[in-house]
Amino acid sequence: MRVTNQNEDISVILKKGDFFGEIALLKDVNRTATVTAIKRSEMLELTTYDFKKLITAKPQLKKKFEEIAQERSCSYKD
């Protein structure tokens, strides 16, 4: 996967089991990047409703998503 943020390519490699879109879901904002598959991929879509239901039921997941969102937000600004 290639991640683009504000017309800038960011070197990010997403592997099996990785995810994206957590920043928009957590902060209820427009997406912060565009992800483009560079080879055939299978993805699972999680609605905002289901995401919020999941992190309410599993607070440890919410914490992990928030940590990763913070790391990614910082790397996009560099």
Protein topology:
Blueprint: E1 2-5, E2 8-10, H1 22-27, E3 34-36, H2 48-57, H3 59-77
Antiparallel strand pairs: 1-2, 1-3
Helix pairs in contact: 2-3
Structure description:
- This protein has 78 residues and is an alpha+beta fold.
- The protein has one domain.
- Helices cover 45% and strands 13% of the residues.
- The protein is built from three helices and three strands.
- It has a three-stranded antiparallel beta sheet with strand order 2-1-3, with no helix packed on it.
- β1 and β2 form a beta hairpin.
- α2 crosses α3.
- The radius of gyration is 13 Å and the shape is globular.
- The model has no long low-confidence stretch (mean pLDDT 85).
Structural class estimated from helices and strands: alpha+beta
- The count of domains is 1
End-to-end CA span: 20 Å
Radius of gyration: 13 Å
How much of the sequence is in beta strands?
5-15%
Could you report the average pLDDT, rounded to the nearest whole number? 85
Sketch the major β-sheet: 3 strands, antiparallel
Q: Order of strands in the sheet with the most strands?
A: 2-1-3
Task: List how many beta strands DSSP finds.
Answer: 3
Helical element count?
3
> Percent helix among the residues?
40-55%
Give a brief outline of the structure:
With 78 residues, the chain is of the alpha+beta class. The protein contains three helices and three strands, in the order E-E-H-E-H-H.
List keywords for this structure.
78 residues; single chain; 13% strand; three-stranded antiparallel sheet; globular; alpha+beta
